[in-house]
Amino acid sequence: MKILLVYPNAKKEIIAWGDKGAIAEPIALEYIGAIGRDCGHEVKLLDLRLHNDDLDTTVEQFQPDMVGVTGYSMHVLRCLEICRIVKRIRPECLTVAGGHHATLEAVDFFEPEIDLVVIGEGTGPFRSILGCLEQGKRVEGIPAVWSRIDGEFVLGGAQAEFDINLIPQPDRTLVPDDRADYFIDWMKPIALLRTTVGCPYRCSFCALWRIMDGQYYKREVDLVVEELKQVEEKNVFIVDDEPFVNSKRMMLLAQEIEKAGIEKNFFSYCRIDSLLKDMDLMRYWAGIGLKRLLIGVETIFDYELADYNKRQERTQIVEGLQAAKSAGISLFCNFIIHPRYTHKEFEEVIRFIRENEVDYPSFTIWTPIPGTNNNYEDVIQRQANGRPNWDYFDLQHPVTETTLPKEEFMEQFENLYQVFASNYLQAESPMTVTAMNEKHVAMGDPSVRLAMKVLGMIATDKHG
Ligand code: SF4
Questions:
Q1: Is the dihedral of CA 239, 240, 242, 243 positive or negative?
Q2: Going by CATH, does the domain composed of 178-455 fall within 3.80.30.20?
Q3: What percent of the chain has a predicted confidence (pLDDT) above 90?
Q4: pLDDT digits over 209-226, tens only?
Q5: Residue of the nearest CA to atom 7 in ligand 1?
Q6: This prediction's pTM
Q7: Among 138, 191, 196, which residue's Cα sits nearest to residue 23?
Q8: How far is the CA of 199 from the centre of ligand 1 (A)?
Q9: What span, in angstroms and rounded, lies between the C-alpha atoms of 346 and 337?
């Protein structure tokens, strides 16, 4: 069987700057591709962020029997569009949607162009789907898979128990020609690595912990090191929801990486309190190549930190920023800008970033994202069917009413990028310049803001 896996590109009319600021490897599809190949099928991965005009020709030439798409909320409508194109060219092709949004709001994929919807960790269900097809059976009754029965989508059962140590390594050979093009600002080329899945925290604006039912799964350290040995890229982004929860395990991982002689530049997510609780650990990681951390500061206002159930206070954030600096680790910090912000809050955010000399600030707009306890009642941007217009759920557009007039709010939001563009030019710089579409490096240059926004999208990847 021929399987085509498609990573969607963002809609350019929504995100005028497209996908050009940062593009990380499509690791979710590399996991699925590994299953496909392991089951003996021919697998192709098309990354539309790098090849945005290649969908039609790829489907025409490859003639897939199955097409799989994945994505966050902002990709929903594009994924549907991709599957419609596939069905137009090859009506008999089976289309499967999975990933973040499908897990939280499968209903958005209950459309004629979709045959199956996979929820949760996709590798197990995908293997079961292939098993069914190999035996010539109808795909139905598979746990965590919605399939159409008598015209209605029916869930085949609850997700099976998850064992993180049983999932295969992502197949990084699926996109050999693209690998050099994957980057996150100055880190180019970059590979992604997953050492844990899930999160034990319960932040109210975040859906990640809900995807794994609040569980936190840790991979065996030796499996992580084995995988890392095979990663060719010098830069590695640890994309765990929160890797530094367990200090002992992370120290063991660092020691094993060092023992194996692996030399990489690491970039990782980390909570401020995880960082503060064991600075010896952070210094050890800095010693084996940890260059920077992506910290969700989220907000500098204690009332919002409480509202977000972040379980930390502004004083800890300030302490954490200073501690990271003293350990020689630079920080990429994301700030959630709430639609209720007025000039006063915008000014305070700017003052905080300046006073605390945040290396790489990035900004996302608070959004009632799927999987959080928020409902969509207040969402203004809607599709014709009444569902939210997911195109705008990129955390760079307000989807609910703003206190300031919307245009004024967006001016203030854009201004944040303008004010801090120079940070991106000062920190780690030579490659930053290359990554930001070369040459245009003047402070406030649109390409600089573009890269900062896309870095904000990395936070989007995490939460939206
Ligand atoms: S925001 Fe981070 S720490 Fe909070 S629940 Fe989500 S992944 Fe966990």
A1: negative
A2: yes
A3: 79
A4: 888 888 999 999 999 999
A5: 241
A6: 0.91
A7: 191
A8: 6
A9: 8
pLDDT in tens, 279-338: 999 999 999 999 999 999 999 999 999 999 999 999 999 999 999 999 999 998 999 999
Which atom of ligand 1 sits closest to the CA of residue 206?
6
For residue 434, give both structure tokens: 């290359």
Counting from 1 in the atom list of ligand 1, the atom nearest the Cα of 298 is 1
Determine the residue of 194, 268, 271 to mutate for testing ligand 1's pocket, defined as the one with the most ligand atoms within 8 A of the Cβ atom.
271
CA of 242 to the centre of ligand 1 (A): 7
Q: Is residue 199 lining ligand 1, measured as CB closer than 6 Å?
A: yes
Which atom of ligand 1 lies closest to the CA of 310? 4
Distance 113 CA to ligand 1 centre (A): 33
- Say which residue the tokens 């306890």 belong to: 373
CB-based contact 195:203 (threshold 8 Å):
no
The CATH superfamily of 2-155 is Response regulator (3.40.50.2300)
Q: Is the CB of 206 under 6 A from ligand 1?
A: yes
The two structure tokens encoding residue 45: 């991965």
Residue ranges, comma separated, of all CATH 3.80.30.20 domains in the chain are: 178-455
